[in-house]
Every structure is written in C-alpha cells, then in structure tokens.
TrEMBL record:
Residues in Amino acid transporter transmembrane domain copies: 7-357
Species the sequence originates in: Olea europaea subsp. europaea
Localisation per UniProt entry: Membrane
Keyword list, A-Z: Amino-acid transport, Membrane, Transmembrane, Transmembrane helix, Transport
Descriptive protein name: Lysine histidine transporter-like 6
Recorded superkingdom: Eukaryota
GO biological process: amino acid transport
One Gene Ontology CC term in the entry: membrane
Record-annotated membrane-spanning stretches: 12-30, 123-146, 211-232, 252-274, 295-315, 321-340
Amino acid sequence: MTNGFFGRGPGTLVLAISWVITLNTMWQMIQLHECVPGIRFDRYYDLGRHAFGPKYGPWIVLPQQLIVQVGCDIVYMVTGGKCLKKFMEIACTNCHPIRQSYWICIFGGLHFFLSQLPDFNSVSGVSLAAAVMSLSYSTIAWVACLSRGRVKNVNYGYKKTSAADYMFRVFNALGQITFAYAGHAVVLEIQATIPSTPEKPSKVPMWKGAVWAYFINGICYFPVALIGYWAFGQDVADNVLVALQRPSWLIAAANLMVVIHVIGSYQVYAMPVFDLVERTMVKRLNFPPGAMLRLTVRSAYVAFTLFIGVTFPFFGDLLGFFGGFGFAPTSYFLPSIIWLKLMKPRRFSLSWIVNWVSKMLRLLYRKRTIL
C-alpha cells in the first residue's frame, strides 16, 4: 500500500499523477502503432527499432520490456501462491497447514497447461475473467476496510526508521505504483490482434478499450489505497486482504478472486515472451515450429518463473529496484522519448512540454532508485 510509505497527501498525489501520465503515454503507444502508413508495429521492440535504428533500437527497448514481463509473472506466481494459502487457511481451519512454497508450486502447475494456449485471442476469456475478478476483490477489500473501521490507536504519521530504510521504502512504493501501470509492455502486442483498415484503424477501438481499462484501474486502486490507509494507517499491509479476517467467507472469496485475476494476468504478460523466444529459435537456431517447440519453450519459461518465485518469495519487495530498471522506462519515459523523436511536436507546445516533464521526472526517479 503506497500511502503507508508516502502518507495520505503525497501518496494520493503520486497515484493521481502516475494515472494521468501513464494514460497519456498509453494514448501515445496506441497512436504510434500505425504511425507509418501501411506498417503496423506489432511489438514494442519493432517500434523501438523504427525509432532508434536497427542497431540500437532492440537493445534500448527489449531488455526493459522483458524485465517488466518476466518480473510481473514472477510477482503473479508468488501472489497466486500466497492467496491460495490464505484462502485455504480461512476456508478449512482444521486442515493441516502447507508451506507457502507448495502453494506457489500448485499455482504454477496450472500454467504448465494454460501456457499451451496458442496466442492472445485464445486467452481472451481468461483475461476477461481476470478483469472482472480484479474489480470484484478490490471492491470487497475497500468495503471490508470501511465496515471494519479504523484499528485501535491508528497512526497516520511516517514510520520512525533510518534515512536509508526510509528512502528504500519510498522507492519501493514508487515501484509498486509503476507495477500498477505496467500494461504498456504488452499494449502493442494486444493491439496487433485487432483488425485494421484505413477506414477503421485499430487505434480507435484500442483507445476505447484502454480508457475503460484505466477507468476500472482507477476505481480499483484509489479506493483500496485511500480507505485501506484510513483503516490501518502506517501499518497497512502490501496486500490489505491479508490483514482482514471478517467476514471470513467474503475474505476467502476475495483471495480466490485474486488467484483468478493473476492467472489471467500471468498469461497476458507471458504471451509476448513466448512469441519472442519461439520466433528466435525458429529463425536463428532452425528449430521446426510446432507443438513440440511450444511445449518445450513455454514449459521451460513457466518452470523458470516458478523456480524464482519459490526461491525468492519476497520478490515483490524488490519492485522498487525493478521499477527503476524496467517498469518506469516502458510505461513513463520511453513512450515520451519515442513520441518526441517520431512525431516531432512543435517546440514548447503542450505536447512537447508534457513529454519532456514526464521524461525528466521518471529519469530522476530511475537514477535515484538505482543509486
């Protein structure tokens, strides 16, 4: 919970500014998808290659995009295991407790099967279920916090800690915010699935979908952040559902909804990685395309993210670090840089000023996070 690190005022301001900035950069990405007549940039690194040249473009974009996609999948792996564990603890109080690592393995086992779905279109149903579950469990979280009321002796002040630890907490909170707006890493790949003609370009329905997604994002994150902080103050947990106990059946249902949500989200972020690795193995290593290649590549990727999730169950605590390297560039300042380079807005125009401000703010955040 970011407000637990920033406080009510700064935390809300950072959330709001990030929402506005990333909505703007999302619009830029959607417009840039077909910025050259007759060409569709179906992958982020294709757009990077066009903007920065074939030599440097993929190296500027691809490593950061992979950090986002693989990082999100590892976090989802850990989150899925944690919420499965919480669900069973509430639903079956007499059951023998199982270690969290085993629950992560159970959650990961589902993806060995789901990862064999061929493309984005085949996971659309899973993605829709994930979106519905996200709205549902977020609503349960803030309504449960509101009905529970404030904890005894709630404290809204900043936690007393060392300067170094305080800075780490602040940048970890910033990393969590950038994690919430990580969809830019897959937006072009999703837009590539939409038919496009000169009369009906794909950017029109894609932008409508993005606006709705951001609206749902806002009504999910803002009430949970604000009401969760009101209820628990500086002691609010990263996952507020873990701190809630009653009504038990509702909290159990919310944790199960989180599981369904991260199942769909894992597949959305994994699909571009599958496509990249499979294309590389076919083109450069002469592997024959087909079911065997898909089974090998996708199972290996799921096994890798599962291994990291089990080995480092605190992976989510590193979001500040990964936010500086991957989440912030792909969602905040890389779209602004590419927009300035390709669209060349008039100097000191509103578009020029907004993109330069966004670029400099996120570069400053990235530099301090890395340091």
